Amino acid sequence: MSDLPVPVPLPSAAAPAGAPAWLSHDALRWAEPRLPRWAEPRWPALALLVTVIAAIVLEPEPSCTVAVPCGPDWLGMIQMGLAVVQLLWYFRLPELTLVSGPVLAVIVAVEEFPQAGTADAANAAVIAALAFGWAASWQRLALRRRQRRLAEQAAAGARHPLPEGIGPLRRGVVPIVAGLVLCAVAGVAVGLGLRGVHEDEQRAAKAESVSAVVTGHGEDTLRVRASDGSKRTVDAAYPDDYDTDSVVTLLSDGDWNRLAAEPYDAFGWQLLVLAAGLSGLTLLAVGALARRRAAALRRAPVPVLRILQRVDHNADTWIYAADDTAGRTPLLRCLAYPVIDDRAGENDPPDADADAEAEAEAEAEAEAENENEEEDEDEDWPDVDTRLREAVLYGPPCDAGELVIVTANWDGDPVVLLTAGPVRLPKGGQGPELEWPVEDAVE
Among 434, 414, 417, which Cα is nearest to 9's? Predict the structure, then answer.
């Protein structure tokens, strides 16, 4: 006889009829295809980071002249912002990189290559790194599609709608709302930046052109002597580019003066656009993908599989094959929470007797806790039942997917769990924390 503990059984009424067990031979076949090492997101992220830094270092500093004045570079802002956020999307949102990668490659080709220079090789390397990242993201998404297909094969055609009382669809609402707010902030920043540019152009159109001699430099200003002998101080983005005693052209309109080679630069607004816009776009994508995946489970009957499940001391839920009663090979890891029926008791009339009884019970529990406080001061770890439990998985499992799990609670009653985040595959050697203290426990 085996000394292994028997998994907590799931009430037979909680399991849909005909749900097959996800046995180890099918589960290992599902887990066997692994992402190739070259397609791991760290490598395309590293390649893009190195090539972008090289392109920035090799690119010559812009020279502001009256013929080619400096000014707000909105396309360059988009280019740099996409390059930065691409590093995050490789890890969290490979779906977006299939679109953003080609867009960024086109921007680099159109914006950088017409300017022949020493950075051409680095810019070509940036495009090559983006192509490499696109292939890696495609490989990750192809692996997810294969996992879903293998899970559907293991379900052998068994499909059922989600259990009753699943509640309204809430996944993705918070990031979508936050993303919309941030995108609105970015839109306002774009408007204010463009308004500043427009006002500067209007002022420059009616200003008088004045020659001046540079007499000194400040941190971000120039001291000049105009042709009429007046001394003025004007803002300069690149003051060191102007030698002392060199001649510059000013645009002057009353007490308003600026260098003709340096129009208004909406750099501050551009930074706000990047910070708010890219964060908002990321949150929108995260929320939309989570909502779409969760909604897909509700639209039609989904594959169901009998599995084993446990919760560890880090509140992570781990999924095992139905015959892995030793819990040796975790297949999936996710954060899941029980469904709460918000409608329960929502329209019930108040019951004075019930309120009084509940209050008395609460007082009794508080007294009991005070009596046992000294006895429990050495046992202050949370009480978590980490036993394996029989469960039913709704939906084809895959990396970054959404699932519904029906399992048994402490009392053996069925409980429905919803994933609160994307499902992840455990990395090599990774497993549940089954004993206290865990690594981040407070001593």
Answer: 414
pLDDT in tens, 269-278: 999 999 999 9
Task: State both tokens at 347.
Answer: 């329209």
Q: Which residues of 124-136 are buried (b: 16+ CB within 10 A; e: fewer)?
A: bbbbebbebbbeb
> What pLDDT, in 10s, does the model give residues 175-213?
999 999 999 999 999 999 999 999 988 988 888 888 899
pLDDT of 227-240, one tens digit each?
888 888 888 887 88
| Identity of the residue numbered 249 | T
> Over the stretch 29-51, which tens digit does the pLDDT of each residue have?
999 888 899 999 999 999 999 99
Using CA atoms, how far apart are residues 320 and 393, in angstroms rounded to an integer? 11
How do the domains of the chain map onto residue ranges?
1-20+300-345+380-434, 28-154, 168-299
Q: Are 341 and 165 in contact (CB under 8 A)?
A: yes
Q: Where are the beta strands (DSSP E) in 159-301?
A: 159-160, 208-217, 221-226, 231-235, 247-253, 256-259
DSSP 131: H
**What topology is assigned to 168-299 in CATH?**
OB fold (Dihydrolipoamide Acetyltransferase, E2P) (2.40.50)
Question: pTM of the predicted model, to two decimals?
Answer: 0.81
